[in-house]
Specification:
The complex is a heterodimer of chains A (111) and B (112). Chain A has 111 residues and is mainly beta. Helix content of chain A is 0%, strand content 56%. Chain A has strands at 5-7, 10-14, 19-24, 31-37, 43-50, 55-58, 61-66, 71-76, 85-92, 99-101, 105-110. In chain A, strand 4 and strand 5 (43-50) form a beta hairpin. Chain A is globular. By secondary structure, chain B is mostly beta strands. In chain B, 0% of the residues lie in helices and 52% in strands. In chain B, strands 2, 4, 5, 6, 9, 10 and 11 form a seven-stranded mixed sheet that branches. In chain B, strand 4 and strand 5 (44-50) form a beta hairpin. The N and C termini of chain B lie far apart (32 Å). The relative contact order of chain B is 0.34. The chains are: A mainly beta (111), B mainly beta (112). Chain A binds chain B through residues 3, 30-31, 33, 35, 40-45, 48, 50, 88, 90, 92, 96-104, and chain B through 2, 4, 6, 33, 35, 37, 39, 41-45, 48, 50, 55-56, 58, 88, 90, 92, 97-106, 108.
Chain lengths: 111, 112
């Protein structure tokens, strides 16, 4: 399957701690995106990382990509209760027109 | 806010009925994709429209159909609704695949 698989499926941390979630995949990609989803609402675009990039930052977010291991990670530093959400990775592969989503990581940040 | 708007936000339909969902893409985006997200799952690709033509389709039956208009807005039509069609339907607009896709808030469809 080309589907991205997030790990862990669920994560519960205290406010102020860092949260790390991982995405593994099985095919070559053009780019990989991370999205946040609150309570079954729309997906919020967080970061896009291209296959020739290794790391990107946006505020408290840090994304890494290791194409040799076919994996990506999303780090949220100094987490807040408002970061409580589901996080998805989405893959764009060569010659295709769609994004393939994983099953997501449910993050709960306790105040 | 992404600039992608979907309507309606919630909808209840009876099995066997037909439904039309609407999406206005972000300004300047010429590509619209539709996804179905069942409860507790990741979004699944339904199809994509590029400049009013279908540009790819996922593993969904023909009763799922769509349109894209000259202003790049789009519709998703589902005929002969089944209970399993109950899901969140998400529209995403983009300007080519390399720049990322931006999603609307979704339409929650319940089939009873």
């Amino acid at each position: 399957s080309q589907q991205g698989e997030e790990d862990p499926q669920a994560l519960s941390i205290q406010e102020g701690e860092n949260a790390t979630m991982n995405c593994s995949y099985k095919t070559s990609i053009n780019n990989l995106q991370w999205y946040r989803q609150n309570s079954g609402r729309g997906l919020v675009h967080l970061i896009l990382i291209r296959s020739n990039e290794r790391e990107k930052h946006s505020g408290r977010l840090r994304v890494t990509l290791d194409t040799s291991k076919k994996s990506s990670s999303l780090l949220i530093t100094a987490s807040r209760a408002a970061d409580t959400a589901s996080y998805f990775c989405a893959l764009s592969t060569s010659g295709t027109y769609k994004y393939i989503f994983g099953t997501g990581t449910r993050l709960k940040v306790l105040a | 806010e992404t600039g992608v708007t979907q309507s309606p936000t919630h909808l209840i339909k009876t099995r066997g009925q037909q439904v039309t969902l609407r999406c206005s893409s972000q300004s300047g985006h010429n590509t619209v994709s539709w996804y179905q997200q069942a409860l507790g799952q990741g979004p699944q690709f339904i199809f994509q429209y590029y400049r009013e033509e279908e540009n790819g389709r996922g593993n969904f039956p023909p009763r799922f159909s769509g349109l894209q208009f000259p202003n790049y807005s789009s519709e998703l039509n589902v005929n002969a609704l089944e209970l399993d069609d109950s899901a969140l339907y998400l529209c995403a607009s983009s300007l080519g695949g390399a720049l990322g896709a931006f999603f609307g808030q979704g339409t929650r469809l319940t089939v009873v």
